Request: fold
Amino acid sequence: MAQDNDDQILARNLRADVEGACLLLSYAAQSGLEIKMETAKTITGAKVLLKAGQLTGGEEALFYLAYEEIAKLASPVTVDGLNAASEARKTVYKWFVLPFYVFLALLVAVQIYSLIGSTAYKNVKGVRDEIEKVNRGLEKKKNKSGERRRRKSVSLICK
Reply:
């Protein structure tokens, strides 16, 4: 039982080391550091063999030698430093970039709502102005027809 637990811990540590070595290898390649072909092959081969569950003791030893080499090459950068930078990037994205996009989306929504409201207000104002214009025209016609009636009535009275 204790042996199984120890084996699981060792397997977990080996997996973490392989992931760390791959991370350093990626960093070194992106930074333009001169990586030996054998070092890159050993690290990537260990990753493939570990996934397949076929990593032997000799291959594990070669992996750790390659890991040491890539760690020295990438120094002063460490796996912990790269992981911390990755976490910081995720935190910045989570707390600053995503809220910025949410704010931007809300701003666009408010602008669209404002544009629609402004257009509707102009249309309503235009219709109201048109109604007032028609009402004035009707009042003028009413006043003219009222004057004609008065004139007729005055002319009838005068006769």
Notes: The chain has a mean pLDDT of 85. The CA atoms of residues 148 and 154 lie 10 Å apart. The radius of gyration is 42 Å.
